[in-house]
Amino acid sequence: MKAHAFFNTIEDILLQSLKDELDLTPKPGCVDGRDSGPHADMDYDVFLRSISSLKGYFFEIMEVSYRKNTFDDTFEAIRPIGMKYEEKMYDATNGINTHKGAIFTLGVIASAIGKLYYDNKYITIDLISEYVKLLCANIFDDFNKKEMQDSNGMRIYQYNAKHSGIRYEAKNGFETALDAYDFYKDTKDFLRTYVYIISTLDDTTTINRVGESGLAFSKDYAKKVLDSENFDEELKAMDKVYTEKNISTGGCADTIELVYFFKRMDDFLASYMNDFLYNKEERWGIITKAIQDCNKPIITLNLNIKGMHKDKDEYERLYKAAKMYLSSYECIYEDEDAYTAIYLANGEAINEKKNFIHLEEEHDFMRFVDIDVIDTNLKPISRTELGYAKRTCIVCGGDRFTCMREERHTQEDFNASLNAALLNLDK
Questions:
Q1: Is 222 in the same domain as 170?
Q2: Residue 359: what are its φ and ψ, rounded to 5°?
Q3: Which residues does 175 contact at the CB level (< 8 Å), separation at least 6?
Q4: What's the number of domains the chain is made of?
Q5: What Å distances lie between residue 338 and 46, 220, 333, 417, CA to CA?
Q6: Do 342 and 378 belong together in one domain?
Q7: Is 309 exposed, middle or buried (CB count within 10 Å of its CB: 0-12, 13-18, 19+)?
Q8: Domain range spanning residue 180?
């Protein structure tokens, strides 16, 4: 799948996630398929117009993010796009703020995906979260601007940084939404998940409407509904109470949109991950067929040197050295020019992954090699889910995402590290 088609698919997923949130009913504190809740100035049709006005937004964000090198440059490049589509939203809704929060949250999600696609990463929800953190690392710097000093966001931030809404959530990679997604995966119930979000999120929309005491009431009420034996009836009552008390849960709506997106994205990735790792459909076809025919996990070998401009000899030396450790596995595909190969695993996916993690940590040159293990459900096994630390920076051994964000190392630094690894390889 080429970039244009991929970006179109992701935009469809993002727009559908907005529609999913709108259709979730009953949704205490928000407009839904039944009524407007505490929002007398909004209704279902207004939200539909708003969603339609955002067509093209996420594609544009991904396309720009795909072309930018640094995370800071990317964030600054997507700002005017978000502002442009805010105006389109207001035009479509006659000045009503329906999706300003979503324009930001889903916008930075789209940006992260655009950069992941460019980096040719094996896209996962966790990686999207990490890239969002990198994009939004300096998100609170805006509060240093004069025009922000008297804003609601600034006042709330000064009072409690955790209450800083979507900025706080984005800076932390949407951890609240990821937690809610885990809750959803356990319950398979989006309405329960929404109430769970209300019970856990410090929703700044709620604070702006009814203050800190209203937020406390809202969170406690949601916990009681979750614990009740008659959830459906208690939820209906909750919906009425929130309307009567003018409690808005707009931040929770932004969060459930992310949960819908994570679910749809996971479903998509389970079937169409070929472009992310291999960039050629035939390779993913080989993997899929091999798993179907042999019911065995798959091991993939690639060089971790994207963007390098080294000569062919150095590529080959790294590739051949790594291949030596895979000689006991059956190779089912190899592209020597691209320095990539696919193997059938000999054992269980988790055990194979642990073995290769130990190999990566034992040999210096393996920092420049990616060996991934894909289980029989077409899911890559990550280091973190097995209790291992994330891979570190190739140059300094520190946090690689911090080094990427702050551009701590030059191309010359990278080349020196590679040359040192090659020297050790010769010993």
A1: yes
A2: -65, -45
A3: 129, 169
A4: 2
A5: 50, 56, 12, 22
A6: yes
A7: exposed
A8: 3-271
> In this structure, are residues 125 and 114 in contact, taking their beta carbons and an 8 Å threshold?
no
Other Cβ atoms within 10 Å of 295 Cβ, number: 8
Averaged over successive runs of 10 residues, the pLDDT of the chain (427 residues) comes to 83 97 97 95 96 97 88 93 97 96 96 87 87 91 53 45 71 95 96 98 93 96 97 97 97 97 90 51 79 94 62 76 93 85 95 93 86 91 88 82 71 78 72
Q: Are 71 and 55 in contact (CB under 8 A)?
A: no
Question: What letter represents residue 320's amino acid?
Answer: K
Count, residues in the chain: 427
Tell me, yes or no, whether 365 and 257 share the same domain.
no
- Give the CA-trace dihedral at 385, 391, 397, 399, to 10 degrees: -70
Residue 123, classed as helix, strand or coil, is coil
The number of helix segments (H) and strand segments (E) in the chain equals: 19, 4
DSSP at 390: P
Both structure tokens of 38 = 């505490």
Among 271, 287, 311, residue at a domain's last position: 271
